[in-house]
Amino acid sequence: MNPGRFIVFEGLDGAGTTTQANLLAERLQKLGRSVYLAHQPSEGPVGLLTRQILAGRAATTQADGRLGMVDERVMALLFAADRLDHLGSQIEPRLARGEDVILDRYTLSSLAYQGATISHEFIAAANRFARRPDLTLFLYVPATIALERVRMRGAKLERYETASQLQAIEREYHRLVGTLASVVSIDGTRPIADVAEVCFAALQQQLG
């Protein structure tokens, strides 16, 4: 049995990664492929804790008893721990039995989001056992447009969803994407259907 294909979507909050991951999964399923669609942080125990921190529902207790922000190094380790748990429990077994895995965010997110404030060496070391994706589709949307989209959702803004943070993360993504041959950069500002077509074309060109 041929192993499945490991496809990752990356981009700023508001770039459309969730929408495009869903559209690609639907298209592959119509072509008869078996697809596992997921996101990180995952729905596993570490992932759920990480999501609580991102949403501001969990914090660290400081020495004086006040609640404070969880350190970015701790966040990087939480993301890495969740990633390894997700790989071992869900992703790798499915790939081994021939399923395609489409993931909304992976290691590149850690390097861009936490890498805006802590060293890439620290993050890379924490993720050194993470499997390499077969293809990463990076949806480029400027930070200003991404934040606009996030605000339009009407939900409370999360940990990294501020103008200054998204601009810093955008710079990190640009620096990273330019050095990685396995990443295809796609204009995420185009209409949803157009972006979906480009994503599918990139998949066919890169992986057949």
Structure, described:
The chain has eight helices and seven strands. It has 208 residues and is of the alpha/beta class. It has one domain: P-loop containing nucleotide triphosphate hydrolases (Rossmann fold, 3-Layer(aba) Sandwich), CATH 3.40.50.300. The strands form two sheets. The chain has a five-stranded parallel beta sheet, sandwiched between helices. It has a two-stranded antiparallel ribbon with strand order 3-4. The chain is globular.
Molecular shape:
globular
Biggest sheet: strand arrangement: 2-5-1-6-7
Instruction: Please indicate the count of domains.
Output: 1
- Please name the CATH topology: Rossmann fold
Strand content of the residues, in percent? 5-15%
* Number of DSSP E strands: 7
**Low-confidence parts:** none
What is the class in the CATH system?
Alpha Beta
CA radius of gyration: 17 Å
Mean pLDDT across every amino acid position: 92
CATH H-level superfamily: P-loop containing nucleotide triphosphate hydrolases
Distance between the termini: 17 Å
Topology order in helix (H) and strand (E) letters = EHEHEEHEHHEHHEH
CATH architecture label name: 3-Layer(aba) Sandwich
Helix content: 40-55%
Total of helices: 8
> Largest sheet at a glance?
5 strands, parallel
